[in-house]
Amino acid sequence: MDGTMAGYYIREGNDPNLFVVEMEGGGNCDNPIDCADRANSKKGSSKNYPGSKKGTKLLDSNCAKNPKFCHATHVHIPYCTGDIHRGTSEPSNDGFWSSRYYFDGHSNFMAIVDRLVLEEGLKSSPNMKVLLIGNSAGGVGVYFNIDKFKKKIPLAVVKGVSTAGWLPISALKDDLPPIYMPSNFTMFSAGRNGNSFYHFIQNGGVPKDIYKMKDTLPADCLNDQNENEWWACMSMNQAYKYIKAPLFHVFNQYDRTQIFGSEDGANAPMYPETVSEMNDVKKYIGMIGRATRAGLQKVFDNATLIEKNHADGIFAASCLSHKTKPSLTIDGGYSWPEIVTDWFFENGQLTDYHRQLETCTNQDEYGLPCNSQNFCKY
Fold first, then answer.
1. Which domain holds residue 318?
2. How confident is the model at residue 262 (pLDDT cuts 50, 70, 90)?
3. What distance in Å separates the CA atoms of residue 135 and residue 250, rounded to the nearest whole number?
4. Strand order across the beta sheet in which 355-357 lies
């Protein structure tokens, strides 16, 4: 954001035909105060980047912990642009507050891919296998960059794993049109429908594309959407069917940022002060769960415009958490890293677990999360 050089970390692997590329997460900024703070931190500047980092999970070089990917070349892309890895904007003289920053996460990513091809051994070959992964903002980055990544190495096998990236979720049909997020807690608890963005649009507001991300969204989605509603293609509810690459979706049915976060469509009180407010929070949690499941059903329905050569996978626990910990399982089965590994290499050993949406047999009246892990419960 501050104009310092973006970059990446890399560990050369023993297998020249296997890459794991990770896009880092970390929220975003869209107002002058938050962006000024971010630009002066490691999330907006590379001034204080360490000389090395330790890879974890699927980037771990310890073969006892990461047996199938330990020999891959591991690439970690720090998140330094505040734009969910989707921007192409550079400073200008238009006078708007955002014009002082580099919101060019997508541009950086594509430049890094070029560098990997030219200097780091990534190649367009039928033998080359690439896994693009990301969490939260990095998970969103996976969704909206993977097809353009694939075009750089068209002969290679490129698949994506997004954790906590199906954001924002879309409203239920009895709430708001599905191009919008669900009603926020204030409106919901008052028995009304709406959120600030919905009302902004209804009152004639025109969103400003401060990241200049419009042209990075799926072109077919933009063509099929009303021109004045191009922003709808930022949501996976609209964009999912246009993404061509095979994807594995790891997303909890009750994402905390959609319930308690400061983003519009959330703002439920973390600590209700009355019994009545507690009941409203429980009802709101239940509604977010239903809205999430309605959106993720697209994966189970194979609701894409083209038939993929490798079906998408999904791991959706009934859990109140933003991140999906590797220790989390559904019905005592396997963790998502174990399932993702089997899915990516198409080993066929865990095929029955490639599509899981946890169901609650003894659902309470509110529809609260039911996974047995303590951190999942309300």
1. 9-376
2. low
3. 9
4. 9-11, 73-77, 18-23, 129-135, 157-163, 247-250, 313-316, 355-357
Domain tally for the chain?
1
Classified as helix, coil or strand, 294 is helix
**Rounded Cα gap, residues 315 and 340, in angstroms:** 9
Q: How far apart are CA 279 and CA 154, in angstroms?
A: 52
> Between the CA of residue 43 and those of 3, 7, 37, what are the distances in Å?
12, 13, 9
- Distance, in Å, from the CA atom of 282 to the CA atom of 335, rounded to the nearest integer, reads 28
For 315, half-sphere exposure in the C-beta direction (CA atoms, 13 angstrom radius) is 30
Strand, helix or coil for residue 11: strand
In degrees, rounded to 5, the angle at the alpha carbon of residue 26 between the alpha carbons of residues 249 and 59 is 60
Task: Write the pLDDT tens digit of every residue in 271-298.
Answer: 999 999 999 999 999 999 999 999 999 9
C-beta separation of 157 from 129 below 8 A: yes
pTM over 0.85: yes
Q: Beta strands of the chain (E only): which ranges? A: 9-11, 18-23, 73-77, 129-135, 157-163, 247-250, 313-316, 355-357
Classify burial at 268, counting beta carbons within 10 Å of its beta carbon; exposed 0-12, middle 13-18, buried 19 or more.
Answer: buried
Segment 189-248, tens digit of pLDDT = 999 999 999 999 999 999 999 999 999 999 999 999 998 999 999 999 999 999 999 999
Mention every residue, 6+ apart, whose C-beta is less than 8 A from residue 273.
none
